[in-house]
Amino acid sequence: MRYLTSLFCSAAVLLCAGHAIAEPFPSTYQPLPSQPTLITNATILTGTGERLDSASLLLADGKVAWVGEGEAPADAVTIDAQGRWVTPGIIDVHSHLGVYPSPSVDAHSDGNEMTGPVTADVWAEHSVWPQDPGFARALAGGITSLQVLPGSANLFGGRGVTLKNIYSTSYQGMKFPGAPQGLKMACGENPKRVYGDRKQTPMTRMGNVAKYRAEWIATQKYVADWDKYEQQTADGKQDAKAPIRDLKFETLAGVLQGDIIIHMHCYRADEMLTILDMAEEFNYKVGTFHHGVEAYKIADELAENGVCGALWADWWGFKMEAYDGIQENIAIVDRPAGSCSVVHSDSSEGIQRLNQEASKAMTRGQQAGMEIPEERAIGWITSNAARSLGVADRTGSLEPGKMGDVVLWSGNPFSVYTRADQVFIDGALVFDRNDPALQPVSDFELGQLQEVRP
User: Fold this and answer.
1) Alpha carbons 371 and 382: distance in angstroms, whole number
2) Of 64, 183, 281, 427, whose Cβ has the fewest other Cβ atoms within 10 Å?
3) Quick one: how far is CA 36 from the chain centroid?
């Protein structure tokens, strides 16, 4: 991106003309070694709306080689999946693993920078604790990728990070390579309560919106100042002075430039419509509304604007803005053409059974008379989730050339009795329910005595 390239070069006082500038805190993720794996006789939900019965799947070189039928190399490991189901790896777009890890103690509470309503300068990845035991618990539930977000105390809470659910000693070793960053924003009760209780701005919903708009106006000036400097430099002006680098405005400028995806915590339909109007005013795009208890009221508007709804199956009523929830929410948001329903967890426990959360939403929609087959509902936790995170070209569905992120389930993944038997990430077997050597344990848990019950 031309603007940010000139910004980083100037801010770092580097002689960088003609040189690529490395991104800060780059991903060091490397797929684990794998071998060709042929899964046969399975019921396969591809994540593209297709169901294949008694079908096969080949993973090779860390990717999906083919789905349905085809040739396998002689050295392929063969798994007979008779009676079992295969899906893409499950993706949770709203997690706080690592930033609110287990055990839940004050020393681990690193998800909310509650020092001001605008903390767009912070990055969630700088709080991620890779030893959080929750990552392994999520893996046992079929989670292969997840987005870790800051909390929702602030209007602009900071950047999120998308991770591959692989054990690593550093968060850089977990970072999904090339995944766009997201900006966590929040509307409604949380920011107005946190700062209103301190007699600070904002303390009302109108204060929330006024503060958003003021920050976007300031960001427009920041971008214009850098554009002016860049033009002066290109024109050979010797005394051109670079603006002062500002980490907050770098993040907000990334949104206006289309490089950072907005992930907006918002419950009420009227507030979501206000946010869409504000995005139009400042010419940026909202990527996903999270929680969206009233999203069913504006399902058509979300689809028309290409906005995903990352929603709970049945959380509601725990505060006033969450009062008007219905269990058909996800199914209704899924109905319009171009829709993007996503089931998310926002929970270190819910992430372990995201397939069951999707099942609840599917069932409620079916009971309301909507036709929702398993092959469609699986997209709520796979392909639609990948779309929300800007990585659908690489993962989220079982298509040749995409990452070999795959879950082999003991049965129908929408049954409460089903468990993930085996989980593959980039073609490597990283979890096996029948092999203790493939049931990861974090460093934090090593050496701790486990309770033994008679």
Assistant:
1) 19
2) 281
3) 28
CA 58 to the chain's CA centroid: 27
Question: Which residues are within 8 A (CB) of 218 and not within 5 positions of it... i.e. 6 or more apart?
Answer: 249
Q: What is the CA radius of gyration of the chain?
A: 23
pLDDT tens over the chain, length 454 residues: 333 444 433 333 322 333 345 689 999 999 999 999 999 999 999 999 999 999 999 999 999 999 999 999 999 999 999 999 999 999 999 999 999 999 999 999 999 999 999 999 999 999 999 999 999 999 999 999 999 999 999 999 999 999 999 999 999 999 999 999 999 999 999 999 999 888 888 999 999 999 999 999 999 999 999 999 999 999 999 899 999 999 999 999 999 999 999 999 999 999 999 999 999 999 999 999 999 999 999 999 999 999 999 999 999 999 999 999 999 999 999 999 999 999 999 999 999 999 999 999 999 999 999 999 999 999 999 999 999 999 999 999 999 999 999 999 999 999 999 999 999 999 999 999 999 999 999 889 887 766 666 6
How far apart (Å, rounded) are the C-alpha atoms in residues 11 and 32? 37
What does pTM read for this prediction?
A: 0.94
Amino acid letter at 399? E
User: CA 36 to CA 74: how far, in whole Å?
Assistant: 9
Architecture of domain 90-397 in this structure: Alpha-Beta Barrel (3.20)
Question: Exposed/middle/buried for 234, CB within 10 Å: 0-12, 13-18, 19+?
Answer: exposed
Instruction: Report the relative pairing of strands 63-68 and 51-60 from DSSP bridges.
Output: antiparallel
d(CA 123, CA 312): 25
Output the six-digit token pair for 83: 């009676």
> Is the distance from CB of 133 to CB of 444 less than 8 angstroms?
yes
Between vectors from CA 90 to CA 87 and to CA 94, what angle results, nearest 5°?
160
